[in-house]
Specification:
2 copies of one chain form a homodimer. The first copy, chain A, is an alpha/beta fold. Helices cover about 35% and strands about 20% of the residues of chain A. Chain A is built from 6 helices and 5 strands. The interface between A and B is large, with 96 and 96 residues.
Chain lengths: ~170, ~170
């Protein structure tokens, strides 16, 4: 019987004083939203120098610009005042080299044919480039001038930019 | 001109040694995925006692069980071995009490009619309950027995469970 959830509740209860942020605004002070992968080796706060109150954090499998990422970013900009987007993908992603067909077959065997694709990719930089292009032309976003893309390598801890914006 | 992205790159470069996790598996060691809101007041690692390597972290506007969250959770379980899901919503969410109509009108004025809804809600606990129900019946997920839902209150730092699982 998994007990992560119980352990998490206990942990939070023991640290409530540190977790309280009374009066901290839901509007990110640094006016930035970060979109990244769900990968277990990524903790964006110590990676990017973020404190609570600074940024919105959006994460999904791959750090892909899905419709739902656009929904979140649109809410971030239109309701809560962010104006800048940073996308963080990474080396060694579980979606890199995965097979859409195998995944789809596995789902079909369980009787489900989803209306989404896994999002497997083979070329990390091309995928990130495509994501940045999509964000820069997304009319759902009022602020699409400041969109930057990084690649994190968990093996050596490096973060490099891919596709610097036109200046 | 926003300079968050540049500052983040500089910060990461100065901390690469701490960010490196050579050999750390992309398969979460605690076999758990956390789904939460993008809210700026939420940092899940110190909230739930997570270390890098422990969990997948999925975040979107609201911490809602969207199709894309199902995609990510499905990848998490089918490709990377997680077996447990913890959903963390929170008090004071930007989507709480927001207007779908106003948001849609704003988008329409910018010439876009998205195929998604904002996800505004009025009843936090009912929304979380609905999310848990959806996950527990989602055949996209091979492991749907251990799904738990929490509500975080950023004002006092408390984390409480909503809708304990049937035992």
């Amino acid at each position: 019987m998994p007990k992560n959830a119980d352990e998490m509740l206990e942990f939070a209860a023991a640290h409530a004083k540190d977790l309280a942020a009374p009066g901290l605004s839901p509007r990110p002070q640094r006016k930035v939203a970060v979109l990244s992968c769900m990968d277990t080796r990524i903790d964006l706060f110590p990676m990017l120098g973020l404190e609570r109150g600074d940024a919105h954090v959006i994460r999904n499998a791959g750090g892909l610009v899905t419709d739902d990422a656009i929904r979140s970013l649109s809410a971030s900009q239109r309701l809560l005042g962010t104006e800048e987007i940073v996308v963080v993908m990474h080396e060694g992603c579980g979606l890199s080299g995965a097979s859409e067909d195998d995944f789809r077959r596995q789902l079909a065997e369980d009787g489900v044919l989803p209306n989404w694709r896994l999002g497997a990719f083979s070329d990390l930089e091309a995928t990130l480039h495509h994501s940045l292009d999509r964000l820069r032309t997304a009319r759902e976003l009022p602020h699409r001038e400041n969109v930057r893309g990084f690649v994190f390598d968990p093996e050596d801890g490096s973060l490099r930019e891919v596709d610097a914006p036109e200046r």
